[in-house]
Amino acid sequence: MADILEQSQIGVLQLQPYITALERASSLNEYQAKLCVYYAILTYKIEELALFPILTLFGEHGTGKSAIMKIMAQLVSEPVPNPMDFPNLDRWHGLKINDTFPSLRDGLKEDTTAFIEEGDADYKKNERLVADRYSRQTAIVRYKKEEIIGHSQAGACIFGATIIHKRRGYKDPATNSRSIFVTTKKEPYREHSVKIFTEEEKEEFRNMAQRIDIFSLPTNTRAHDLWCPLIGLATNVDDGAWCDWAIEQIQKQTMTQSSDGSFDPQKAIILAVLGRAVREDGNGNLTFSEGKYNLPQIKHDIDQQLSMQMSINEIKTGLELQDFEVKTRRGIFRVNVTADRLKRTCEDLGIDDEAVSAIP
Questions:
Q1: Judging by DSSP bridges, how do beta strands 54-58 and 161-166 pair with one another?
Q2: Over the stretch 165-194, which tens digit does the pLDDT of each residue have?
Q3: Cys-Cys crosslink for 232: which of 158, 214, 262, 299, Cβ 3.0 to 4.6 Å?
């Protein structure tokens, strides 16, 4: 570790002004703000990587997602669109998922950092572009190019970093499994202020980013592959606490994946139910409580803790497929959770969580 720090000569404290700017611009906590800064640094290492995770800013309207993007657009390597092409930062905006396919394809240039706003529009073909961009192997787009007479076959590499903000989950499970989520939340009476960095501050960030090394760690799941270079980077700036937090996020993401690495909605639903039914008592011991749990509360847990968006009807259907009883009371769906049913479902889905051991 000492050799690495001596080589990079950069510590997390030197990155603090940029971390603080993100915390002040949004509802991000320190770990989330560091994730955004480390992601911005990683864009300067893009030529060293074969995979580049999609950074998805996930939350309701008015939670600071656009403010985060405006700060990151000043820091990343090769931003698209480039803030320098706008009269001022207030006028800057990202690409749109509902742009025409050729327009979005041409905007996702190789080895750049693309910003996409309002990513919830129902454009499956364009969302697939975003998903394929994360890997050099899948990032070659073939298309017909208009010529003076007729058409010719053309190809473009769109591999690069992608930062997108959304209020709803991805329709394609593959896009979920290629993303790292940062969940924003509403904070009443808080104004999201966007710091405008000086040229000297931006140059200092670029210099530090280029000097910090990343290294590969052994991986065995897609979730680990996504986080690996970020953990390597954080290790090199001696941020062990953030590395521990990142490992926790990997475990959450891995628990909601199927065997092929794609998002498994059944696991997400049951993990949320498990989180409601098993809680810590006053002595720190896990205890299980049978009972009826409101589906809106389970939906909230899936949205906020797992950064996935599912409808009440999708959750109801998922629970009924696992033979849980769901009924309405005063217009609210509630699921009846028994120890036997929950334990068997966890075993069937292969959920290996400490909370399962608390179910009698």
A1: parallel
A2: 987 777 676 787 788 988 887 776 667 789
A3: 214
